């Protein structure tokens, strides 16, 4: 399940104080005001999480940032949420919770220092497929003698008189990837934004709702 932070209207500081000072007509506006405050708080929490990503992750891409989303509250469902979309959650979960990532296929392709990376420090999309399509220059497997490990290798230079050719590894095939660190403080950042902003958002929303109800 994608990481998610929820806020429930009935459990947030500030509502009881406001209720004591409202008449029956004004109380009818409270669910609408609460939904508005929860939604605005979730929106702000999303912005806080996105703003924190460059400091916590190595050059997050625009696609990764767009993975942070929020769900609106309604007066019939007083819950708003900040969450990670399913596609981005597949890899961000390890930055949040740590753990061991296992391949969906046969192996995880991990670029080596010989691989030219894009501006975000990642292997360009579709690069493995393009390498494997050029069998004259690249091959996948383990070199003769078993040294160097399994991966995608590049043939470099010209063949020697003996028929040999220098090679270098561009991609390593890994059976799993371990994430001991948890650099992405998704929960901490989102909860801090909720605690910081909800009470103010609720007061503002109630005042606005009461003005429109008069």
Describe this entry's structure for a reader:
The structure is a single chain. With 214 residues, the chain is α+β, with helices and mostly antiparallel strands. The chain is 41% helix and 21% strand. The protein is built from 7 helices and 9 strands, in the order βααααββαββαββββα. The strands form 3 sheets. The protein has a 4-stranded antiparallel β-sheet with strand order 5-8-7-6, with helices on one face. The chain has a 3-stranded antiparallel β-sheet with strand order 1-3-2. Strand 2 and strand 3 form a beta hairpin. It is rod-shaped and about 95 Å long. About 4% of the residues have low confidence.
Summarize the structure.
With 214 residues, the chain is of the alpha+beta class. Helix content is 41%, strand content 21%. Helix 3 packs antiparallel against helix 7 (186-213).
Salient structural properties:
214 residues, alpha+beta, 2 domains, four-stranded antiparallel sheet, three-stranded antiparallel sheet, 41% helix, rod-shaped
Mean pLDDT: 84
Instruction: Tell me the strand percentage band.
Output: 15-25%
Q: How many individual β-strands?
A: 9
- Structural category: alpha+beta
Largest sheet: 4 strands, antiparallel
Percentage of residues assigned to helices: 40-55%
Strand line-up of the largest beta sheet: 5-8-7-6
Shape: rod-shaped
* Total of DSSP H or I helical runs spanning 4+ residues: 7
Model regions low in confidence, pLDDT < 50 over at least 5 residues: 7-14
How many distinct domains?
2
Rg calc? 26 Å
User: How do the SSEs run, as a string of H and E?
Assistant: EHHHHEEHEEHEEEEH
Distance between the termini: 44 Å
